[in-house]
Amino acid sequence: MKKILSILTCAFILSTSAVFSADKVTIQLKWVTQAQFAGYYVAKDKGFYDAEGLDVTIKPGGPDIAPAQVLAGGGADVMVDWMPSALAAREKGLPLVNIAQPFKSSGMMLTCRKDMGVNTTADLKGKTLGVWFYGNEYPFLSWMSRLGLKTDGSTNGVTVLRQGWGVEPLTEGQAACVSTMSYNEYWVVRDAGYSPEQLTVFKYQSEGAATLEDGLYVHEKNLSDAAFKDKMVRFVRASMKGWKYAEANPKEAAMIILDNDDAGVQTEKHQVRMMGEIAKLTAGSNGSLDPADYERTVKVLMSGDSDPVITKKPSGAWTNEITNAALN
Amino acid sequence: MKTSYLANKFIPVSTIVILIGIFWYLVAVPMNSDKVSRQFKNLPTGEHILKCWSLKKPKLPTPHQIITEMVNTIFFKKISSKRSLVYHGWITLQATLAGFFLGTLLGILLALGIVHNKAMDLSVMPWVIASQTIPILAIAPMIIVVMNSVGVTGLLPKAIISMYLSFFPVVVGMVKGLRSPDQIQLDQMKTWSASSNQILWYLRFPSSLPFLFASLKVGVAASLVGAIVGELPSGAIAGLGARMLAGTYYGQTIMIWSALFAAAFIAAFLVFTIDFLQKITLKKMAIIR
Amino acid sequence: MNIFLFLFFIIWLGGWWINIKISKFNDPNLPRFIVPSLFGMVILLMWELAVIGLQINPILLPAPSAIALKFSRSLDILWIDFVQTLIKGALSGYILGCGAAFLTAIAIDKFNFLKRGLLPLGNFISALPIVGMAPIFVMWFGFDWQSKCAIVVVMVYFPMLVNCVQGLELIDPNRQDLMRTYSASYTQTLIKLRLPSALPFIFNGLKICSTLALIGAIVAEFFGSPIKGMGFRISSEVGRFALDMVWAEIFVAAIAGCLFYGLIAIIEKRTTFWHPSQQK
Tell me, which fold does domain B85-288 have in CATH? Predict the structure, then answer.
């Protein structure tokens, strides 16, 4: 019976790709439409998805949208998320699997004002730091615990603020440091009139607290479905093509993003710049996940001080099956 | 008539508006002073103050900055453009009206049930009141996400938040209104051997209308708040709420304020429309009677 | 159809039927308590069964039993959040805002011109989505409870002002004349006649504002907060997929809201027993 079914599905796939009735794929992004997701928008705009026989819907995210929840409810087939959040969801009973990892390095940083007395990590003690929560706090907490700084506001530690979506805490002087992404908020700080000389920047990547960012995740149960797997192989292949195209043509990629920005707030200057920074993070990844990066992420997450994100080592949280099929 | 309107309403209101405007400009100086001194060193006082009123990303934008931004984004952008405030306002208005419609419908139905059925009166009414103590706006993001994830997307999740906020005043007002005919009138209907449907249609419903309109005004304002807060989490996608959020995200205070002002105009427009409908309807009914 | 969904419908219909029976009792007090609590319990049971029966993923909607468990296990955190958000943020803003509005109402009551100018304006502002100003207030007043308090002050001020002014205005002229024949001073008239007769309006304002205060304090926390508070917990726990904790916070908010509303209603009953709306 199963054999017949799989033959039938294969036949179905063949027939559908033969008559070019495109397979539908919905992707949920982690954040709003911006160059951070250029690969997907470029692949859609340039017809890379069409060429693979895919009809892709891109759903932008937002500050209070957890892509994993959307996936759990069946609102998307695949999502872009950071690994800490995906592993947390896995432990809470939503088995997510990383099928591709276009981002090699982490863009997360802590940006500090020198005039508020922060030059090295030793200066952090007693300072007020802005941190993103909503699942993005884990790398920070683990880094602080390695520096031996308490985050509960006690005298020998740091005071943590839940930073909103802007960088005002820094510019208004409410915090000495805020979380920034190398491709986004950092430049908002720069635009607010701060020169690189006035800022101290700690990159999570160089502090050894980097976790894997923007990867592609799907529901584990779907991976046992051959048709879905085939769809994802084509999706990943086209997306990576989109990424490489965006890296090579940052200006054009930024314009495609602007065309797709429904809120009408992104500017060309910011998006071109962002594309340039994003290209630095995607460089060195052909789309497949490097097991060493995964191990490092898990280590960072499990070393969290009091409230670790994941309590036990996850298994089966990633696969190279899709990328191997897509890229070879 | 005209002069009394001028003296009673127009002059006092505009005086106060002007006073608020002056106060606004005064406050803007100390609020933005820090930013100005950081960007421009050693300005003479006069210029310093002028700069306080014309910063690009001020802490408190001045009214003329907000109005300029509004004029730019309302009249000088194509309505279909995603940078047009009209486009975003329209999206918010749609969700507001959809939610308001659903809320009114639900409110009236519940009120009818409550007035006609004792079991419903006893079991539903306390929970209707309790429902409003749940800070729905506070969990709006979660509701939107959960609904999004089960496939309810677009206008509907926002409209449902709006509905939740707007059905309450309608239920309360409508129950009060449907019960407002006094015993004498009800007895009169009974002597005419009117059915309960007839009583509802010819007596209860007409006498509830003034209450209904008062509730509708409260409801439509609540509905707008619901739609805007509903747009905050859905990210910087579209609508006035998304505009406000995007403004916060990029420190564009003028954008936040112009979205707030736009929301204020929509609120005024909606409330006045209902006011107008109320006047017409009630006048007509008086003539019929 | 599985057994849980079957039970779901049985309980629904059963609850309905029992409630109809009970509400037909002639005892005036018994149904008033039993019927709504039964209704609430049936809803909870149906929720539980639906979550189990439809196998809803707990990161979307947890079952009431899971929420209750989480609630009982994290009383300490819930208490810290409660103090941060509701006592420091909402209550202080509520008292300041309502108090300021009340004093303003008395101050402008003497000046007809001001009143005529402020009343329509206040009505208009009450209809505005003030909660949208929350991010601005966080920018102005910092992260801690002060900014939450400020947004609550602005949110409650105008509805309260409008209610107080209206209450002070609607005085039976006969009574006013009576006070005049007693040659009562302005203060005497205010304290003995006008304030008491404005009480129903004042309480109406207080009731409306209690919900607003709750919402304002929680929503403002979404735009930046220290690492405690109900709004902080709600949004950060959603990100950790601990939906049971989120619902526990919502439960706290609802209970606090109901109790506060109830408290105002009881005070209202005690102080405005003479008003027709309190007589049944």
Answer: MetI-like fold (1.10.3720)
Q: How far apart are CA B102 and CA B162, in angstroms?
A: 9
| Beta bridge mates, A80 | A216
Give yes or no for a contact between B230 and B162, defined as CB atoms under 8 angstroms apart: yes
Does A33 share its domain with A127?
Answer: no
More confident of the two residues B3 and A262: A262
Q: Which chains touch C (3 or more CB pairs under 8 A)?
A: A, B
Q: Are residues A123 and A56 in the same domain?
A: no
Instruction: Give the confidence band of C150 by pLDDT, cuts at 50, 70, 90.
Output: very high
pLDDT at C30 over 70: no
A53 and A149 co-located in one domain: no
| CATH architecture of structural domain C71-278 | Orthogonal Bundle (1.10)
- Contacting chains of B (3 CB pairs or more, <8 Å) are A, C
**CB-CB under 8 Å, B246 with A265:** yes
Average pLDDT over residues A86-91: 86
Nearest CA distance, A75 vs chain B (angstrom): 5
- CB A85 to CB C225 under 8 A? no
- Which has the minimum average pLDDT: A49-53, A64-68, A124-128, C226-230? A64-68
What's the order of all strands across the beta sheet hosting A199-203?
A: A199-203, A108-113, A177-181, A128-131, A159-162, C225-226
C241 to A92: CB separation less than 8 angstroms, yes or no: yes
CB pairs under 8 A between A and C: 84
Q: What is the dihedral of CA A152, A153, A158, A161, to 10 degrees?
A: 80
Expressed as residue numbers, the domain containing A47 is: 2-105+212-327
ipTM surpassing 0.85, yes or no?
no
**Whether residue A194 sits in one domain with residue A97:** no
- The CA distance from C174 to the nearest CA of chain B, in Å, is 24
Tell me if residue A216 falls in helix, strand or coil: strand
Range scoring the smallest mean pLDDT among B271-280, C6-15, C148-157 = C6-15
Is the Cβ pair B138, C230 closer than 8 Å? Answer: yes
A185 vs C contacts (CB less than 8 Å): none
Q: Closest chain A residue to C237 measured between Cα atoms?
A: A134
Task: Give the CA distances from residue A298 to residues A93, A309, A312, in Å, rounded to whole numbers and listed in that order.
Answer: 17, 10, 10
